[in-house]
Amino acid sequence: MFERLPSGIPGLDEVIEGGFPFPSVILVLGEPGTGKTTFGMQSLFWGAKQGETNIYMTGVAEPVFMVKKFMSKFDFYDEELVKSGKVQFWDLGTSIQTMGPKKALSTIADVVRQTKAQRIVIDPLPLSHLFASAFDYRKYLYEFLTALRNLNVLTTIIGEKTPASIADIEAYMVDGLIFLELKTLDNPLVYKNLMRVRKLRGTNHSKDVLSMELSIEGINVFRME
Ligand SMILES: Nc1ncnc2c1ncn2[C@@H]1O[C@H](COP(=O)(O)OP(=O)(O)O)[C@@H](O)[C@H]1O
Ligand SMILES: [Mg+2]
What we know:
binds adenosine-5'-diphosphate; 32% helix; globular
């Protein structure tokens, strides 16, 4: 058997045998506004409350101060945990631009090593187009994912992709794949947040479409009747 680490998202752990395999790399995919950043941040704060040291790394989507500004509105955001260094924020954007993608990947691994972080969120991993070829990217991604698994960390990578375009190498190489969606169900005028566990290695997970409530409390997941 292997260790699991709860996601810290209410309702999700119950349908994934108690949590994510540890260590592992989970990819969260969804269109804008589906709750990806919230998902990652809520998991980091939940873990930090249990005493973990957790890191949010932003790529090139949004600067750290913007992410903090919006996330601090959620109930789970705890300024004390940020001040005490239990939740840390790292801006990867500049290092990717100045050092290039290969160095950026090794920087992430170095940061995890130095801080002894238990979970990290990389939001997003914007590197594929920076490599000369798909083969090069795959090779580096393989080394990167292997390094992370050896470092004993739960990594959540946020992907700015729609579930329809998941047949990418990242999706094949990670241990878990979670889809977040905004869809109309019975009422065509009302969009609902939905979640689906598409893949989770070593886990008898629910394959149902799950209902997701996105409120000031953060994300709550429910089985649909
Ligand atoms: N305080 C809040 N109460 C309810 N819903 C919120 C609140 N703050 C943000 N949201 C919802 O969360 C969405 C943004 O979630 P976010 O995690 O940033 O999405 P993504 O990273 O997938 O683009 C907003 O578009 C809004 O629908
Ligand atoms: Mg986001």
